Amino acid sequence: MIDVYHNDYYHLATDGRETYPLSEQATEVADDIDAQWDMYLANSYTLNELQTIDLATIHLPREWLEKWLQSF
């Protein structure tokens, strides 16, 4: 998402040298995943937990990711 948000045109660096534009649908999916991640964290953990937890250990439910993959 950092690569997406840092470019006004929603390009994604795929090989370290060039960027390729994301389709409108891919951009919508990326935005949806980002929003759902924020809501998932807010609804699943307290503020104190979020300040101390290792976010690398948290995963979105697999079925959510499968749904997004099917929509892409």
Low-confidence stretches: none
Which structural category fits the helices and strands? mainly alpha
Strand sequence of the main sheet, in spatial order? 1-2
| N/C terminus separation | 16 Å
Characterize the largest beta sheet: strand count, sense, and whether it forms a barrel. Answer: 2 strands, antiparallel
Order of helices and strands: HEEHHH
Beta content = 5-15%
Fraction of helical residues:
55-70%
Mean pLDDT: 77
Instruction: Please count the helical segments.
Output: 4
* Alpha-carbon Rg, integer: 14 Å
- The outline comes out as extended
Query: Tally of extended strands?
Result: 2
Q: Would you kindly provide a brief summary of this structure?
A:
This protein is 57% helix and 8% strand. It has 72 residues and is mainly α.
Give a quick set of tags describing it:
mainly alpha; 72 residues; extended; 4 helices; two-stranded antiparallel ribbon
Written description of the protein model:
The protein has helices at residues 2-5, 24-44, 47-52, 62-71; strands at 11-13, 19-21. 57% of the residues lie in helices and 8% in strands. It is extended and about 40 Å long. The chain is built from four helices and two strands; from the N terminus they run H-E-E-H-H-H. The model has no long low-confidence stretch (mean pLDDT 77).
